[in-house]
Write a structure and sequence with these properties.
Structural class of chain B: alpha+beta
Oligomer: heterotrimer
Strand content of chain A: 15-25%
Shape of chain A: globular
Number of domains of chain A: 2
Distance between the termini of chain B: 67 Å
Shape of chain B: globular
Helix content of chain A: 25-40%
Distance between the termini of chain A: 11 Å
CATH topology of the largest domain in chain A: Peroxisomal Thiolase, Chain A, domain 1
Order of helices and strands of chain A: EHEHEHEHHHHEEEHEHHEHHHHEE
Number of helices of chain A: 14
CATH architecture of the largest domain in chain A: 3-Layer(aba) Sandwich
Number of strands of chain A: 11
Radius of gyration of chain A: 19 Å
Radius of gyration of chain B: 20 Å
Largest sheet of chain B: 5 strands, antiparallel
CATH superfamily of the largest domain in chain A: Thiolase/Chalcone synthase
Strand order of the largest sheet of chain B: 8-7-6-9-10
Largest sheet of chain A: 9 strands, mixed
Number of helices of chain B: 2
CATH class of the largest domain in chain A: Alpha Beta
Order of helices and strands of chain B: HEEEEEEEEHEE
Strand content of chain B: 25-35%
Chain lengths: ~400, ~160, ~400
C-alpha cells in the first residue's frame, strides 16, 4: 500500500449477555467515545465513519447502522456499513484502512457492534443463513457444522477432546485478565470435558457465549498518526479470502485461513510466522478452531505437529506464541464486533496497552476474522490483519 | 453508577414471509427427485467437477452449468456426521444424525440426515459410524418435491 | 472541461490529498428489470449479470482482484445473504467484502480499494428480488422500535412526510411532481432493460391511487427484480479495455441524521455534502453546464425535484421548473434519468449501481436508444437509508 495507516485509538464495551441499560445507539456511542478518549481526539477530528454489524435479526432493526449513525458521529460525514457475518469487524477494519490508503481521508473511525442478547433466538437466526432449497430443515447450524468438521478431524489426525479442552482452559484463564471479557471463570480440562454436550464432540465449554457489545478503532494516515500518538500500531499487512466449500472437500476452512493470511503476510514481509509474529488474536468461536490455525497460519506444517503444540502449551501466555491473550472469541462473542475486537486487542498488544493480559515485548500481532460457514453452496469469509509497533 | 433494575424492555417480533424462486437448476433437481426418483447433478465443462447439490454455475471457472446434467448412482459414503441430542428451534425432534455425504461421483458433499441408525445410546452410535462408511440413497414411495423425498441409510460394507 | 486529462487532482478540503491514480469502469451489465423473475433464483440472476460484466470487459474471473457487493439480508430473505450470493458474484477465492447500503456505495468502496494501489481490478455487484419478500414489512423494520415503529412510520409514510414537507414549504404542486413521473416513464420506452415501459400521462399520475398523501402510486417506483454488475480497473488495465472506459472523475458520499424530527425534511443536505466532494474532485463548479447527463435516485417523483436542488442545479423549491421547462428532458440542457430512473425500474439495493452503470454507458456512447448525444460527463447518484439519510455521488467522464 502506498500510504501507511496505523491504529491510534481503540475502545471496547464490557461484553455481557444483555446490556439492558443501553439502546443500540447508546451501546455504540460508548465504544466510539472510548476510542476517541483513547486517541485524545474529538469527533471533529474524524473524516469518515465505517460501521460494522452482522445479521440485523439480532437487534430486530433493519439497517441498525443508520439508526446508530448519529451516535457514532457520522452526522455530515461519509458513512457506510459493512456486513460479512462473523468477519464483519475484520472487513470493516479493512474498509477503514482502504478509506485512508486511497488518499481520500486521513482519520477514520470504525465501529462495530452486535446485540446477540437482544433476541432469545440466536440459533434460529443463524439457522436462516442456509440455502432455503437445499439446506433448510437439516438442522444445520454453526454448532452441528463444527461438530461435523471436528468428527472428520478426530478420525484423520488423532485430535482428542482433551486437546480442545486445553485450549478452552487456556482461553478462560486469559479472560480473567481482561476486564472486558464476557465469560470470566477459570475452568479445568476436567470441567470442559464434563460440560454439557451440545452436539458431540462439541460441549458447552468448547463454545463461545452470545454477547452484547461494541468496539471502535480509530485509524489514521502516517502523518496524522505520528501527531496523534507516540505509539501508533501500524497496519503492515492485511488480506482476506472468500470461498465456497463443504467439509470434506479440498479447499476447506483451514486452507481459507491460509489464503487470508497469505496476502497479509506478503504485504507484511512475513515468511516465518513462528519467528516473526509475537501474538495472535484468532477468530475462534470454538475451542477446536485455534488448533486448525496453528497449521493454516503457518506456525507448523502438519496437523500432527499442531496437536503436539497444544500438548506443549504453544499458545499459552507463557508459550512460544500466545493465542487469545484476551480470552478470545471463546470468552466473548458480540458477533459483528468480534473481528474488530481482535484488531483492537492486537493493537493494544503491540503498543503495550493490554494491561494484565499484555504479552511481554509483543511487537507484531496477527488478528483474524471469520464469517459464514462451510455448507452446500455457501461461502466462508476470512480476514487477516498484521499490526506492528514499527512502520515498514 | 447504580443501574435501575426496572429499566424498560419493549417486546417485538418479526413475521416476515418470503417465496424463494428455486430457479431452473433447483427446480429440475427437485422435479427429478419427485417424478423420476433419480439424483441429478451438474457437471462443469471447464474443471470437470460434478456438483451436488447442483449449481447453475461453477464458481471456479465462472461459467454457466445450465444443461450440463449428469445422473448419479444412488449410493455413496459418509463424509462427516454429527449426532444431535438437543432440540433446536424449528428442527426435528432429537436424537438424529445429520451428515455430509458423497453421492455417486459427485465432487461436492450433500447435506442430509442419516437414517436407520440405532440412537438409543448416542455414544455407542458414534463408535459405529465412521468417515468413509458406505451409504445408500432410498427414494420414498410418496414423493412431494422436497429434499426429503429420499433418505440415506448405511449400506452393507 | 471536466477534469481534463489530469492525473492529479488536489482536493483542498482535505489538506495534502492528491488523487494519484485513475480508476475507470470497463465492464457493465444489467439484467432486464422485471416485476418478478420467477424462472430465476437470486443466484442465477446474480451470476448472469456478473458473467455479463466480465464478458463486457473482455475479462475472465481470474483477472479480478477484488469483489465488492451491495446487498441487504432482509431484502434477500437470508441472514448473511452474501454467504449464498458471494459465489455467483465472482467472489470465490477473492478478496471480497459487502456493504449493506445502496449499490453506489459499493462503487465508492471498490474505488477506494483500487486507489490504495492494492488492487488492479474489482467487480462491483448489487441486486434485489423484491418479488420474493414483503418490502413494506421489511422496511418498516428500519425504524426505531421504541419511538418510530409504534407511531406508524414505515418507508411510505416517512417519504410521504418528506414529500409533504418539501411541497408545502415551496408550494410545489402534485402536478409539478407528477411531471417527473411522466418524463421518466416516457424515457423508459427507449430503455429495453427497464421494468415499466409504458408512458403515463399527467392525468393518470394524478388519478393513480393515493398511498400516503401526497404520494400516489405513480409518484412511487415499482417493485422490481434486477441486478447490476460493473468491472472497475486502474488506469493501466482500463486503457486496454475492450469496450472503452468511463473514468471516475469525482466521488463523494455523506450521511445525515437518522431522526426525522431532528432535520429539515424539505431538503437532502447529505446529498449536497456528497455532491460537493464529488464536484471538487472532478473540478465541476457549474454542474448544469459542465454535466451532460445525470442519473439520479428518484425515490419518489418529489425526491427527484429535491435532488436537483441538493445538487445545486437550481434554487430550493425551483426543481419543478427544470422539468416544466424541459431542461431535464432527453433533449434538454441536462437530461436526467434518460434510462427511466427508479420510477421505471426499482431493484432497490441495486438502484444506485444501475445509475452508475447508466452514467458510464452514456459517456462511453453505449446507451443505445436513450443515448444523450455527445455525452462526456455524467453524474450518478444513489441513496441509502430512509428519507435521503445517506447519499453517494459518482461523476464519470470519457
Amino acid at each position: 500500500m502506498a500510504r501507511r495507516v496505523a491504529v491510534v485509538g481503540t475502545g471496547q464495551t464490557p461484553y455481557k449477555t444483555r446490556r439492558r441499560d443501553v439502546s443500540v445507539p447508546e451501546l455504540v456511542h460508548e465504544a466510539a467515545g472510548a476510542a476517541l478518549s483513547d486517541a485524545q481526539l474529538t469527533i471533529r477530528d474524524i473524516d469518515a465513519v465505517v460501521f460494522g454489524t452482522a445479521p440485523e435479526a439480532f437487534e430486530g432493526v433493519n439497517s441498525p447502522d443508520k439508526w446508530a449513525a448519529d451516535a457514532v458521529g457520522a452526522l455530515n460525514k461519509p458513512f457506510m456499513r459493512i456486513h460479512t457475518g462473523g468477519a464483519t469487524g475484520g472487513s470493516a477494519a479493512q474498509a477503514g484502512v482502504h478509506h485512508i490508503a486511497s488518499g481520500l481521508f486521513d482519520v477514520v473511525m470504525v465501529v462495530a457492534m452486535q446485540r446477540v442478547g437482544q433476541t432469545p433466538e440466536a440459533q434460529r437466526i443463524l439457522g436462516l443463513i442456509w440455502d432455503p432449497i437445499f439446506a433448510a430443515g437439516f438442522s444445520l447450524n454453526l454448532i452441528t457444522t463444527v461438530a461435523m468438521a471436528t468428527s472428520i478431524n478426530m478420525q484423520k489426525t488423532g485430535l482428542t477432546e482433551e486437546h480442545m479442552a486445553r485450549i478452552s482452559m487456556k482461553d478462560h484463564l486469559n479472560a480473567l485478565n481482561n476486564p472486558y471479557a464476557h465469560v470470566r471463570k477459570a475452568v479445568t480440562v476436567e470441567d470442559v470435558l464434563k460440560s454439557f454436550p451440545l452436539v458431540k464432540p462439541i460441549k458447552l465449554l468448547d463454545c463461545c457465549p452470545s454477547s452484547d457489545g461494541a468496539c471502535a478503532i480509530i485509524f489514521a494516515s502516517e502523518t496524522r498518526a505520528r501527531k496523534i500518538t507516540p505509539k501508533p500500531a501500524w497496519v503492515i499487512g492485511m488480506g482476506g479470502s472468500t470461498s465456497v466449500t463443504t467439509p470434506g472437500e479440498e479447499n476447506d476452512e483451514a486452507t481459507l485461513g491460509r489464503l487470508a493470511a497469505k496476502n497479509a503476510y506478503r504485504m507484511a514481509g512475513i515468511d516465518r510466522p513462528r519467528r516473526q509474529i509475537d501474538v495472535v488474536e484468532p477468530y475462534d468461536p470454538f475451542s477446536i478452531t485455534e488448533i486448525g490455525y496453528y497449521e493454516s497460519l503457518g506456525f507448523c506444517d502438519s496437523p500432527a505437529e499442531a496437536l503436539r503444540m497444544v500438548e506443549r502449551g504453544f499458545g499459552e501466555m507463557t508459550g512460544e506464541v500466545p493465542f487469545s491473550p484476551s480470552g478470545g472469541v471463546l470468552c466473548s462473542n458480540p458477533i459483528g464486533a468480534t473481528a474488530l475486537v481482535r484488531v483492537a486487542e492486537a493493537a493494544m498488544q503491540v503498543t503495550g496497552n493490554a494491561g494484565a493480559h499484555q504479552v511481554p515485548d509483543a511487537k507484531v500481532a496477527l488478528a483474524m476474522g471469520a464469517g459464514g460457514s462451510p455448507a452446500p453452496g455457501s461461502a466462508t469469509f476470512m480476514t487477516a490483519m498484521v499490526l506492528s509497533s514499527q512502520s515498514r | 453508577m447504580a443501574q435501575r433494575a426496572d429499566l424498560l424492555e419493549i417486546p417485538g417480533t418479526w413475521d416476515l414471509p418470503w417465496t424463494y424462486a428455486a430457479g431452473e437448476v433447483g427446480s429440475r433437481y427437485i422435479e427429478e427427485l419427485r417424478d423420476n426418483a433419480r439424483m441429478m447433478a451438474t457437471k462443469c465443462p471447464g474443471c470437470g467437477r460434478v456438483l451436488l447439490p447442483p449449481k447453475s454455475f461453477c464458481e471456479r471457472c465462472f461459467v454457466s452449468l445450465k444443461g450440463h446434467w449428469v445422473e448419479l448412482e444412488p449410493s455413496g459414503t459418509l463424509e462427516a456426521f454429527a449426532i444431535v441430542t438437543i432440540p433446536f428451534p424449528e428442527q426435528r425432534e432429537p436424537p438424529y444424525v445429520v451428515g455430509y455425504f458423497k453421492i455417486g461421483n459427485a465432487s461436492t458433499n450433500i447435506l442430509h440426515f442419516l437414517e436407520g441408525v440405532d440412537l438409543s445410546d448416542p455414544d455407542k452410535a458414534r463408535e459405529k459410524l465412521h468417515i468413509g462408511m458406505p451409504v445408500k440413497v432410498i427414494f420414498k414411495e410418496k414423493r412431494e418435491g422436497r429434499m426429503t423425498d429420499f433418505y440415506i441409510v448405511p449400506a452393507e460394507e | 472541461m471536466l477534469g481534463d486529462n489530469l492525473n492529479l487532482t488536489r482536493d483542498s478540503s482535505l489538506p495534502g490529498v492528491i488523487m494519484k491514480r485513475k480508476v475507470g469502469v470497463i465492464g457493465i451489465s444489467q439484467t432486464k428489470h422485471e416485476g418478478a423473475k420467477r424462472g430465476q433464483d437470486l443466484v442465477d440472476m446474480i451470476f448472469e449479470t456478473t458473467r455479463g460484466a466480465l464478458d463486457d470487459a473482455g475479462m475472465e474471473i481470474g483477472e479480478i482482484d477484488s469483489v465488492v457487493l451491495a446487498a441487504h439480508d432482509l431484502i434477500d430473505g437470508r441472514s448473511i445473504s452474501s454467504m449464498l450470493l458471494a459465489a455467483p458474484a465472482g467472489a470465490h477465492m477473492k478478496e471480497e467484502t459487502r456493504v449493506a447500503d445502496d449499490g453506489a456505495f459499493a462503487v465508492a468502496l471498490a474505488w477506494m480499494r483500487l486507489m490504495s494501489g492494492e488492487f488492479g481490478t474489482s467487480l462491483v455487484v448489487s441486486w434485489s428480488k423484491l418479488s420474493e419478500g414483503n418490502f413494506d414489512a421489511i422496511t418498516q423494520l428500519n425504524f426505531d422500535p421504541v419511538f418510530y415503529r409504534p407511531v406508524g412510520l414505515n418507508h411510505l409514510t416517512a417519504h410521504a412526510l418528506q414529500a409533504m414537507s418539501y411541497s408545502s414549504r415551496y408550494g410545489v404542486t402534485e402536478a409539478q411532481a407528477a411531471g417527473v413521473t411522466v418524463k421518466n416513464r416516457s424515457n423508459a420506452l427507449d430503455n429495453p432493460l427497464a421494468h415499466l415501459r409504458q408512458k403515463v400521462t399527467m392525468d393518470e399520475v394524478l388519478r393513480s391511487p393515493l398511498l400516503a398523501w401526497p404520494l400516489k402510486e405513480l409518484d412511487m417506483p415499482p417493485r422490481s427484480d434486477g441486478a447490476c454488475a460493473l468491472v472497475l480497473a486502474s488506469e493501466k488495465r482500463a486503457k486496454k479495455a475492450k469496450n472503452g472506459c468511463a473514468w471516475i472523475r469525482g466521488i463523494g458520499w455523506g450521511n445525515d441524521t437518522y431522526y426525522l424530527g431532528d432535520k429539515d425534511l424539505a431538503g437532502m443536505p447529505s446529498l449536497t455534502l456528497a455532491a460537493n466532494k464529488a464536484f471538487k474532485m472532478a473540478k465541476v463548479n457549474d454542474p448544469l453546464k459542465q454535466l451532460d447527463v445525470a442519473e439520479l435516485h428518484d425515490v419518489s417523483s418529489y425526491h427527484e425535484l429535491m435532488a436537483y436542488e441538493a445538487l445545486g442545479l437550481c434554487k430550493p423549491g425551483e426543481g419543478h421548473r427544470l422539468v416544466d421547462e424541459g431542461t431535464t428532458s432527453p433533449k434538454g440542457e441536462l437530461p436526467v434519468n434518460p434510462s427511466g430512473g427508479a420510477l421505471s425500474s426499482n431493484p432497490y439495493t441495486a438502484v444506485g449501481l444501475v445509475r452508475v452503470a447508466e452514467a458510464a454507458l452514456q459517456v462511453m456512447g453505449r446507451a443505445g436508444a436513450h443515448q444523450v448525444p455527445g455525452a462526456k460527463a455524467a453524474l450518478a447518484h444513489g441513496t441509502s437509508g430512509m428519507c435521503g439519510q445517506s447519499n453517494c455521488v459518482v461523476i464519470v467522464g470519457s
